[in-house]
Amino acid sequence: MARLNLVLLLVAVICALAAVTSSHRARKLFIGLENEQKRTRDLDVEWSQLQLEQSTWANHARVEKIARDKLAMHRPAAGRVLSVEAR
Amino acid sequence: MRLKFVHSPLLSQPLPAWRARVMLVLLLSGFVALVVRSLFLQGIHNDFLQKKGESRYERVIEISATRGRILDRHGDVLAVSVPVKSIWAIPEDARLSAAQSRQLAALLEMDVRELNRKLDAEKDFVYLKRQIAPEQADRIAALQLPGIHGQREYRRYYPVGDVTAHVVGFTGVEDAGQEGVELALNAQLSGQPGSRRVIKDRRGQIVEDVESIKAPVEGRDVTLALDGKIQYLAFSYLKQAVEDNKAKAGGIVVLDARSGEVLALANLPTYNPNNRVKLAGAQLRNRAFTDTFEPGSTMKPFTAALALEKGKYRSDTPIQTAPGRLTIGTATISDAHPHGVLTVAEVIQKSSNVGISKIALTFPPGEMWSMFDAVGFGHPLKLGFPGEVGGRLRPAKSWRPIEQATMSYGHGIAVTLIQLARAYLAFARDGDLLPLSLTRTAGAAGSGQNVISAKTAREVRAMLELAVQAGGTAPKAQIAGYRVAGKTGTAHKVDGGVYANKYVSSFVGFAPASDPRLIVAVMIDEPGGKVHFGGDVAAPVFAQVMAGGLRTLGVAPDAPMAPLKPLQVAAAR
User: Fold this and answer.
1) CB count in 10 Å sphere of residue B99
2) Any CB–CB contact under 8 A between B563 and chain A?
3) From the CB of residue B380, how many other CB atoms can be counted at a distance below 10 Å?
4) Residues 476 to 495 of B: which have CB under 8 A from any A CB?
5) In this complex, is the C-beta atom of A58 within 8 Å of any C-beta atom belonging to chain B?
6) Is there a contact between B191 and B66 (Cβ–Cβ < 8 Å)?
7) What's B90's DSSP letter?
8) Which of A47, B59, B148, B392 qualifies as a FRET site for B531, CA 20 to 30 Å off?
9) Set of chain A residues whose Cβ sits within 8 Å of the Cβ of B561
10) Distance CA B530, CA B520 (A)
């Protein structure tokens, strides 16, 4: 009888310790998840900033100014355009 | 003598037995009271303590939702929300030393006195500065000043700025739409912040999700029908024309004739939506939607369409317009240049007021009203745009003959530029009038409402082509390689009840005339230069925008191009 009780006590202690460890691990994983979610949000923010930057650089007014002033581009005159039919 | 403890006389005295019992009962009953109380707190009446406990480790945190972006039809960003911080304070807690407030004021880029005035306010909460860059806010947080807090917010940026200002509009500081599409589609764009309950550990880290109180709803993106490139062309050419002609204002609308989408819409004067410090009412006005004007001769094609539709006239029916004047009652209608006998087509080509009035007066007012009403004049387009108006088209019963005559050439009737552009859809689409769309639609639309027969629409189209050719009123609207059709308008403005020497010059047209793809309507308000005719002021803008637009869309030319000239390459030696 006493031996059985001892075994049960041991099992109970092991179970208790396992519960503690798994809850600790769950928390750690959750913190990891939280961090990844925060990173998602931060990347989202960065993406919107990059989008903003891209559209600022790709502004039509800026593109036209560079094409005209820096690259000396201009529209072809009427006699310089040949239209070909796509097949 | 040493007395042994056990032989102490005090102990050897006999005590009554009941004293020990009383003690025992007292102690036991105290113990029982404690057990009962703890049972009561732990088991039966545990809500209060439970709550207190939870409040020690549970937190409700807000999950912010972003406002949706506004994109053009190619996915280029026209408006985007970027997180910023707002700095606020609890004045009672914020007891700063002089050095601290100087430091804070420098970081906030504001005057120390103004900062102190804000902190002295008899309020529980004051905003010190809203919408500052996150890095700036981090530096302020690093100072760890008492009573000074930061709050995450979103700021709306408009990378294209003034080019799309009137279409896109802007939001207020509370992230709610105030103008333009931002207001019209606010429900779709705005997100709903959510919240959730979590357990935080000693280090402030979230260790467990308890429950989601409210799921956040992210704002949805809006894809407009706007084509960024055509919009830029329209805006810059309109700006150039308004400056060259010293005009007060101007507006331009570009429609896709196949789908009824608004490809470009610009107004001048405009504003920069990113910096709205000095904003005047005139800049805010989205003229194309909210300002009506007397369209002038751009109305004539509708009168001509009525004449052809009813079968009373053909495009070669002669009309006597000599001597260039027509007196109805006490008023006289006159032409800018007197002509002799003109056909109906020539009346449109040369824009004869007398000719079109004579045609109009052969119809009862009710029939003319029905035509104008059918193409959409007099009622708003219902695009959901803020401040949209329907113009003015009085009921036919109240028309006097002189009014009917002037209305045939666009006076005594008021329309918006976008209404006018849409009405021309009927000519461009063989009589089929589509509803307009500000947002991108799934390609070619079905059909709208049939307002005139295809035959009439084609005949009017031919007349409008004549108006652009040599001998018409707008040869400046021609484009190399494309057949263009359109009509000029030069309307006197009413100033204090009388027609003043101020004008509204306009041009509405479409191309390629063989299979219309784009409709462009240009309006220049009060050109102050030497010329004021629609053919000189508005038609060149039309031609530039139309040529650019057709090239952007890759529309095949339907007229012979100018013969190719050999490229002169500098001879290499």
Assistant:
1) 8
2) yes
3) 17
4) 480-481
5) yes
6) yes
7) -
8) B392
9) 78, 81-83
10) 24
> Is B173 near chain A, with CB under 8 Å?
no
Parallel, antiparallel, or unpaired: how do β-strands B498-511 and B325-328 relate?
A: unpaired
Q: Are B226 and B242 in contact (CB under 8 A)?
A: no
Cβ of residue A30 closer than 8 Å to a chain B Cβ: yes
CB B132 within 8 A of CB B108: yes
The partner residue sitting opposite A52, judged by closest CB among B159, B209, B236, is: B159
Tell me which residue of B238, B262, B265 sits closest to B250, measured CA to CA. B238
Given an 8 Å threshold on Cβ–Cβ distance, is B163 in contact with A61? yes
Task: Say if the Cβ atoms of A83 and B77 lie within 8 Å.
Answer: no
Q: Rounded distance, CA B511 to CA B479, Å?
A: 9
Chain A: residue whose CA lies nearest to B566: A80
ipTM of the complex: 0.77
B14 token code pair = 């006999």
Retrieve residue B477's tokens. 């609207």
The verdict on A55 touching B (C-beta cutoff 8 Å) is yes
The structure tokens listed for B453 are 């027969």
DSSP strands (E only) in B269-402? 318-320, 325-328, 331-334, 341-343
d(CA B251, CA B78): 20
- Which helix H or strand E contains B88, and what residues bound it? strand B77-89
For B206, nearest residue in chain A (alpha carbons): A31
Q: Select B228-272+291-553's CATH number: 2.160.20.10, 3.20.20.80, 3.40.710.10, 3.30.450.20.
A: 3.40.710.10
pTM, two decimals, is 0.80
Radius of gyration of chain A (CA): 34
Which CATH homologous superfamily contains domain B61-223? Answer: Penicillin-binding protein 2a (Domain 2) (3.90.1310.10)
> Packing angle between helix B300-309 and helix B365-374, nearest 10 degrees?
110
In the residue annotation, B297 being an active-site residue is answered as yes
Is the minimum CB–CB distance between A2 and chain B shorter than 8 Å?
Answer: no
Round to whole Å and give the CA distance between B287 and B508: 16
* Closest partner CB to B208 (pick from A30, A49, A61): A30
Mean pLDDT in residue range B426-446: 82
pLDDT digits (tens, 9 = 90+) for B519-531: 999 999 888 877 8
Of B259, B265, B295, residue with least CA distance to B385: B265
- The pLDDT tens digits for B224-267 are 999 989 999 999 999 999 998 888 889 999 999 888 899 999 99
Confidence of residue B443 (pLDDT cuts 50, 70, 90): low
Q: What is the pLDDT of residues B137-190, one digit of tens each?
A: 888 888 777 778 877 778 888 888 888 888 888 888 777 888 888 888 888 888
Residue B151: both structure tokens together: 């709050």
All structural domains of chain B with their residue ranges: 61-223, 228-272+291-553
What pLDDT is stored for residue B474 in this prediction? 84
Interface probe with A: pick from B152, B168, B206, most Cβ of A within 10 Å = B206
CA of B265: how far to CAs of B250, B291, B565, in Å? 11, 14, 36
CB B484 within 8 A of CB B466: no
Cα–Cα distance, B437 to B168 (Å, whole number) = 14
The CA distance from B324 to B522, in Å, is 28
Q: What is the Cα–Cα distance from B236 to B417, expressed in whole angstroms?
A: 18
Q: How far apart are CA B536 and CA B542, in angstroms?
A: 11
Q: B206–A34: do the CB atoms touch at under 8 Å? A: yes
Tokens 């032989």 correspond to what residue?
A: B7
Which residues of B are less than 8 Å from A56 in CB distance? 159
Q: What is the largest CA-CA distance in chain A?
A: 110
Structure token pair of residue B60:
């409700």
Look up residue B447 and give its DSSP letter: -
